[in-house]
Fold this protein.
Amino acid sequence: MKNKGEKKTKTGNILRIISSLPILILFLFLLLVIIMGLIEGGRAESSEFIVFTVCASVFLIISILLLICIHQAKYHKWCNNVFLILGILFVLCSCFFIGLGIYFIINNPDTYVTLIAFGIGILVIPFGVCSIIGAKRGKKWIPVFVEERKQREELEKQRKEEALQKRKEIINNQGNGANETENKNSDKGGFDGRLIQEIGWYLLGSLVTIITLGICYPLAYCWMLKWNYKHTLYDGKRLSFDGKATQLIGKWICWLLLSIVTLGIFSLFIPKKLMNWKVKHLHLEGEHPELGGTFKANALAYVFVCIGCFLLSILTLSIFRPIFITWENRYIQNRLVIDGRRMEFDGKGTHLLGKYILWTLLKIITLGIYGLFVHIKLKKWVAKHTHIKQGYELIEKI
């Protein structure tokens, strides 16, 4: 009996997932209609495109509501009923589009609207049927889903409490005393990556990002981070990065959509969120990953510092660029916590200024060729002057 119930539950879940696919189909078709309308110009009657676009928009709204209900219907009876009603409306809308396609075939068979309207109706109607079947089957198993969710929440709460307790024990055992090994290796920080490797990864990441119109930027971003931190050392301890593009791509798409909805305002918070995600997946050799990492900076202040240092470099014709680079790195590095260890940056702009003058002279002598190596040199300098502070910090958020 238990196996039968599990089988029905899986079937209901599959039907719910299938019924969410029309969202993507409708978005593509609406985009196609707009493009066709711009290309065709006045070939087709504008009234036909207006009627079709309005109907498709209503259809899209129903689909979005249906998608929202898919994730909540298995926990709430009223939501499951709404899910059922929307499924019926979905089928009716599909039938309406089939009728609309037939109407256009009879009256104006030359327009692209005919093919699009008829295609939407034929392709999408099966998904509406799946919504109805999924809602009916899922209604019987709402108590089972609710109980499963409660059990998952309790296990997650227990896991977080155990992880937090383990973190406290590590901090108490390690103490906040001086670490002699780290003091001995304080001058062993650096970067041992090669220029040809960086150029290769950069070109590959740029190609993937451009081809996918920015959608796969998280993949290229993770590639660069893994290579970069694989060759970075702080106080003799090599860093590693275990973040995956699959973990970031969902957040990235969500952030982009929120930026569009808020007319770009939310984009000011993306750099901090991206940095915070990166630091959570950064680890120090020989340290405790379970202590976690975070970037303790204000989102707007972080953006202001980065943009401000960039603009000041331009305004001063890059003469004082080393000083502004030092300011920016000091702000960032001093707010990094990796595996419970706070970082500290002791680089000075006057020291970098001397190196920068030398690098500039070498660029002039080599007709700009040496400029390719400056970025690597700068990474080495930043890593050499980034140190691990004594003691541990407890990051409550898990």
Summary: Strands lie at 190-191, 232-234, 237-241, 282-284, 294-295, 336-338, 341-345, 386-388.
